[in-house]
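Worked example 2:
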Amino acid sequence: MTIDTRRLEIRLLDATQLSLWLGDLPRLEREMNATYRAEPLAGVFRTIVEGQLAATAADPANPQWHSFWFILRKTDRSVVGSALFKNRPDPEGCVEIGYGLGPAFEGCGYMTEAVEALCGWALRQPEVRHVTAETDADGYASQRLLQRCGFRERSRDTTVRWIR
């Protein structure tokens, strides 16, 4: 599954590609005809990807709600970031989005473009009424991004919860 924007191709990874991302990035790059230049797959981020691979395997009919979406720049096929929906929509029709960008691509508007496109796609799904997100209380860049994408603050404590 692919979502196209003016500058980006946002591509859902299938379970095999998600596994390759964890274990054989050069092979995944060849398969996708792309160069991975996004955030390093290490530490907590690697643990998140491993968890999403397990969730994708447990619910193979719904990878769009568990796997990652690569954000590819069309001009040079660079993977500049990734995003995901953290689980299937809940009973109230809410689905949470998460995202990350390679540091070299910050400030270029790529993530705003990608989050806007992914939210638009999600909100067209019959089971989705809202997209939510969570930021650190001092994550000002991410908070501004969400505001640009039409999110409003829902609650604030050690983190900030957002809804669109």
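Helices lie at 15-23, 25-32, 43-58, 110-123, 140-148. The mean pLDDT is 96.
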